[in-house]
């Protein structure tokens, strides 16, 4: 029994590539009008709620200011990102990954549960690596990414496309109007970036985690071996 | 058209597969991949929104306090300045190409046609939006009057303004041309079109981005193909900087 299903691994790397292209081309697009607004319209920087910095060339695709070129990349990478998200949601629901690893109970949201799992699973500790059950913090974080941030990118991206809007004008209004949708697109992108940083730092703490995202790894648990008798839910090796 | 749609959808799916294999666009094949992805978005948007799906229209109080001008803000010619000062008495909008009855319409003739007034949002490719009330005849009314032929696949908008030394132009397909909100606007917020917004005439293509909304219109041309017009990419920005011809995204 592998720890990571083939569908998870496939999606993980395709999505990683898509997100990197989308984020960096998105920074180039942001440079075209570096002001964010709330509401339906907005063009006057004096009414902006946020003036965004100019992102440097090394952070953007292409590496120089090129709105048309950046849009080419953004429009292309949107396909594997959006279709991939649909794919992984269906896969997670079918193979039980969602029910097993991402669902939370009210108990998981208490500060005590969060603090306890942070203490027990901080990187470098034995429990921090290769755990076979997701702890409450993981469940909440991954749940937010899958349930909120990633879908928000697709929904806000569709909402700022005038050609899509006639299909669901209510969606644009629900998000507060086109300029609000654009602001939310920007905010959700940085939310994903924050997750990306944490994700990378924690994965680099144990290179086997990265390897397992290629090979699938082995799931430790009742399906392979009986759980250790002493403490339930703690991996047998570190 | 159904065949073209199916093909672009297939091309979009092919682009998806190629993208998943981390093929790096660049060169001609790369541009084909980008074009396929763009075609896929167009096919999907049209399938979801329908050919006649309407862009949202707003109430008068939803309008932005002003309407930003962008790109060309005037036409640098003595004829334009003189016409602007006198209310464009000699300005003509020619309607030609694949039509049975070529026309040359004065502003009075355009104002005498059945009018549509719509309060819509203008989205610039840069990201900003403005909301204004536009008035003018539907493009479909003009195309019917000119007897546009079946061979016409695109409508090209000819403009008086130039950017970087080249005349501005734009083009749309017949789905967008016959769309009820596609109008030739001569008024903004109840006043004659201001200079910076394209006086005396501009196109309103409400389901696409700002660079499709050609200003300072002098002609409408029905064509079978975009080859041979400008550099063949269907518009000034498409030719000059590689902007996407389909601007619904």
List the helices and strands and how they pair.
The complex is a heterodimer of chains A (238) and B (249).
Chain A: H1 6-30, E1 35-36, E2 50-51, H2 67-95, H3 97-102, H4 111-120, H5 136-159, H6 169-174, H7 178-204, H8 207-215
Antiparallel strand pairs in A: 1-2
Chain B: H1 2-20, H2 27-49, H3 78-86, E1 93-97, E2 103-105, H4 107-112, E3 116-123, E4 129-136, H5 139-146, E5 154-163, E6 166-173, H6 174-177, E7 183-185, E8 187-188, E9 191-192, E10 202-204, E11 217-223, H7 236-241
Report on the architecture of this protein.
The complex is a heterodimer of chains A (238) and B (249). By secondary structure, chain A is mainly alpha-helical. Chain A has one domain: Transmembrane di-heme cytochromes, Chain C (Fumarate Reductase Cytochrome B subunit), CATH 1.20.950. In chain A, 57% of the residues lie in helices and 2% in strands. Chain A is globular, with a radius of gyration of 20 Å. The two termini of chain A are 19 Å apart. Chain B has 249 residues and is α+β, with helices and mostly antiparallel strands. Chain B folds into two domains: 50 residues; 186 residues, Sulfite Oxidase, Chain A, domain 2, CATH 3.90.420. Helix content of chain B is 30%, strand content 24%. Chain B contains seven helices and eleven strands. In chain B, strands 2-1-11-5-6 form a five-stranded mixed β-sheet. In chain B, strand 8 and strand 9 form a beta hairpin. In chain B, helix 1 crosses helix 2. The longest helix of chain B has 23 residues. Chain B is globular. Chain B starts with a helix and ends in an 8-residue tail after the last helix.
Entry summary:
The complex is a heterodimer of chains A (238) and B (249). Chain A is mainly α.
State the helix count of chain B: 7
User: Which value, in Å, is the CA radius of gyration of chain A?
Assistant: 20 Å
Helix content of chain B: 25-40%
Instruction: Specify Rg of chain B, calculated over alpha carbons.
Output: 18 Å
* CATH class category name of the largest domain in chain B: Alpha Beta
Our count of helices of chain A gives 8
Strand residue content of chain A? under 5%
Low-confidence stretches of chain A: 126-130, 222-238
β-strand number of chain B: 11
Biggest β-sheet: strands ordered side by side in the sheet of chain A? 1-2
> How would you write the strand order of the largest sheet of chain B?
2-1-11-5-6
Largest protein interface?
Answer: A-B, 43 and 51 residues
The CATH topology of chain A is Fumarate Reductase Cytochrome B subunit
Q: What's the CATH topology label of the largest domain in chain B?
A: Sulfite Oxidase, Chain A, domain 2
Largest sheet of chain A: 2 strands, antiparallel
How many domains, in number, for the residues of chain B? 2
- What is the element string of chain A, with H for helices and E for strands? HEEHHHHHHH
Low-confidence stretches of chain B: 1-7, 9-23
